[in-house]
Structure formats: structure tokens, C-alpha cells
Amino acid sequence: MERKTAPRDAILKTLSEAPGPLTPGEIHERAGQLHPTLGLATVYRNINRLEEKGDVVAVHLPEDPPRYEPAGRAHHHHFRCRECGHVFELEGECPVAILQGVTLPGGFRVEDHELTLYGICSDCQEA
After folding, report:
1. Residue 11: which pLDDT band, with cuts at 50, 70 and 90?
2. pLDDT value of residue 110
3. Hey, what domains does the chain have and what are their CATH numbers?
């Protein structure tokens, strides 16, 4: 049984409260507010352990380093702001179900996908 640690708790709390998946650097910055002595190497080490245990999952966006979010969330898509670089989770119905049988040729079946929309977030539009 793995012991509970303050750094791991700070990382998990940070990920659960984030509006979208975070890079290790973003986790370090935000979790450091909860645990001021948290080092970047500790963040990487804990992310690896949490991913191995299935507590967090990696999100791979094109041309981006891996980002992480808590495991067990329902299927969802992401929006990446081209101004600030933040990534947000999108809620709503998945468009892939609509594509099957309409756009995809007969006999094709989608087994997995990732959808990322790119644009400008509301905060950046106001700035």
C-alpha cells in the first residue's frame, strides 16, 4: 500500500480543480501554492506514479507536451486557446456519433478519437 503524501495530495487537488488538463510545469506552479516546497522533479515523479496507478491520464494534443487530468472523467473534448495556451475541457454531446453512417463510409466504425478545437478563449478576447 502506498502512503499518502502532501505533495501527491496537492497535485491531485490541483488537477481536480483545473478547468482542463495541465502540463507538469502548470501543475508545479499551481500545486506549489498549496505545497510551497514542491519541486518540479517531485511533480514528474508523482505524475508517473499516479498514471501507473490509473489515478491520472495523459492527454496528448498535437504539438504540445503531455498534459494530465484525473482519470475516470466521462468522455470529453478539449479547446486550446491560441493566445494564452490554456486548455479547457468541453462538455456536450460527442459529434462522432453523428459522423458514423453519414460522413464515414459504410462499414467504418470509430473505436477511439480525440477532438481538440483551437481558437481564442473568452478571457483573451476581453483583453
Report:
1. very high
2. 77
3. 6-70 (1.10.10.10), 77-126 (3.30.1490.190)
